[in-house]
Write a structure and sequence with these properties.
CATH architecture of the largest domain: 3-Layer(aba) Sandwich
Keywords: Pyridoxal phosphate
Structural class: alpha/beta
InterPro entries: Cys_Synth/Cystath_Beta-Synth, Rhodanese-like_dom, Rhodanese-like_dom_sf, TrpB-like_PALP, TrpB-like_PALP_sf
Number of strands: 15
Protein name: Cysteine synthase
Bound molecules: pyridoxal-5'-phosphate
Pfam family, one: Rhodanese
GO biological process, one term: alpha-amino acid metabolic process
Low-confidence stretches: none
Radius of gyration: 37 Å
Largest sheet: 6 strands, mixed
Strand order of the largest sheet: 1-2-10-7-8-9
């Protein structure tokens, strides 16, 4: 037996909660209610960070006690059961794979990988749904067919609600000294509400059991809309006293209030549950409500950023990728214009200009120049020119320059580049050095 008075443990699994080691129950001080007392049960004090640690541990315990030979576990999960199972599996020496939706926050998927899980990421709802042949549930069932693999299946395994019947319910009963009047939980697999609710009603049938769910198309990981709940085995509304719907805006708004006013670092589904509790619980003397806060905010920073944008400075815009050639975008059009324009001259005209002292700029590569060249020409290969070099060119931009290459194409690019650098009087030789040779002009 672990000694919780010293909180010194021989294994991390001894930290799993029970009546002797309950997760904390903390009174909310700023609910706006006069009489009713609202207590939050802080489930991130579980050893692996969420209410689902209870379920993960109980699913494994139950299978072991039934004599199942466990080697590798596979489970469809919205994240928290996966994290709990991954860590229970590590401690027990089992392998673990999770099938889950790509819509689950990156933080949770990163945590799962970090904790050694094999992830199979699929296009599915935020919370896995039955009846989707390509979804997380079908994939887990398929993977569990392999020898040595077992699916414990939190959605249909009675060990899920039983985890709460054995631990969450007794803890709350004891922590409130039996004074609890209302129990409120958000609804995912419904293990929490069903197992805890059963225990509490067995001890006092007047305890009001209230479930809270999000709207269709919601963005709150771990919970299910009413439509999805209809397909959920442990959703047994006949056992509950009320089922309420809360919007994403209310849920995230309540979470923000919890952080900034109550100093409670709750995740989105805790905000959802509290918003429902504040709708359902009467503000009367003697009312003691307990609300499950399934996990804390840190796995959902990307979700909070989406829903509370005023808290976050806009992301700096990604810098536009620098074009490799700054003229590339407009070059083709400019090139065609230049080709048809008055700046293209024939080789004899270029030779006459050179005679009159004009600089000839040969933009071919050194190997081409070595084969045949124009005597007295300045050579500056096009790549260097386009990188900004003006070596050998007149420094006065009003001085005329004639560009030449092998056939008259690169020299036109060079003409455009020089004009962009401020040279006002640039010509390009049509047909390049080829035309120069054909015209019988001097070469070296
Ligand atoms: C963050 C979070 N909130 C609420 C729930 C709902 O709990 P339950 O599946 O017991 O209904 C879950 C379940 O995964 C969860 O991960």
């Amino acid at each position: 037996m672990a000694d919780h008075s010293t909180r010194t443990y021989e294994s991390i699994l001894e930290l799993l909660p029970d009546e002797q080691n309950p997760t904390p129950l903390v009174r909310l001080r700023h609910t706006g209610l006069q009489h009713a007392k609202i207590y939050a049960k802080l489930e991130w004090y579980n050893p692996f960070g969420a209410v689902k640690d209870r379920v993960a541990a109980n699913l494994v315990r139950d299978a072991e006690e039934r004599g199942e030979e466990l080697k590798n576990l596979v489970e469809p999960t919205s994240g928290n059961t996966g994290i709990g199972l991954a860590l229970v599996a590590n401690a027990r020496g089992y392998g673990f794979a999770a099938t889950l939706s790509k819509a689950i926050p990156a933080e949770k998927r990163t945590a799962l990988r970090l904790f050694g899980t094999d992830l199979v990421e699929l296009d599915d709802d935020l919370c896995p749904m039955p009846g989707q042949p390509e979804g997380a549930m079908a994939k887990a069932a398929e993977l569990a067919e392999r020898p040595g693999w077992t699916e414990l299946n939190q959605y249909a395994n009675p060990a899920n609600p039983d985890a709460h019947y054995r631990t969450t319910g007794p803890e709350i009963w004891r922590q409130t000294g039996g004074a609890i009047t209302h129990f409120v939980a958000s609804l995912g697999t419904c293990g929490t509400i069903t197992g805890t609710g059963r225990y509490l009603k067995e001890h006092n049938p007047d305890v009001q059991v209230i479930g809270v769910h999000p709207t269709d198309g919601h963005d709150i990981p771990g919970v299910r809309s009413r439509r999805a709940l209809a397909l959920t085995d442990f959703f047994t509304p006949e056992e509950y006293d009320a089922v309420l719907e809360v919007s994403d805006a209310e849920a995230y708004g309540q979470a923000r209030h919890l952080h900034q006013v109550e100093s409670i670092i709750a995740g989105p589904s805790a905000g959802l549950a509290l918003a429902g509790a504040l709708q359902a619980v009467p503000d009367e003397p003697g009312v003691v409500a307990v609300v499950i806060f399934a996990d804390n905010a840190y796995k959902y920073l990307s979700s909070f950023r989406r829903h509370l944008p005023d808290l976050f400075p806009p992301e700096p815009a990604a810098p536009a990728p620098a074009p490799s050639n700054p003229f590339a975008q407009h070059l083709d059009a400019a090139f065609r214009l230049a080709q048809a324009g008055p700046d293209v001259i024939d080789a004899p005209t270029a030779a006459a200009l050179q005679q009159a002292g004009v600089t000839i700029l040969d933009v071919r590569n050194p190997e081409e120049v070595a084969r045949v060249s124009i005597p007295g020409a300045v050579t500056l290969p096009l790549p260097q020119l386009s990188a900004g070099s003006l070596d050998g060119l007149p420094s006065d931009p009003s001085a005329p320059v004639v560009t030449v290459c092998a056939a008259g194409v690169r020299s036109l690019y060079a003409l455009l580049l020089l004009k962009a650098q401020g040279y006002q009087n640039v010509k390009s030789v049509a047909g390049g050095v080829g035309a120069w040779v054909e015209a019988g002009l001097p070469t070296a």
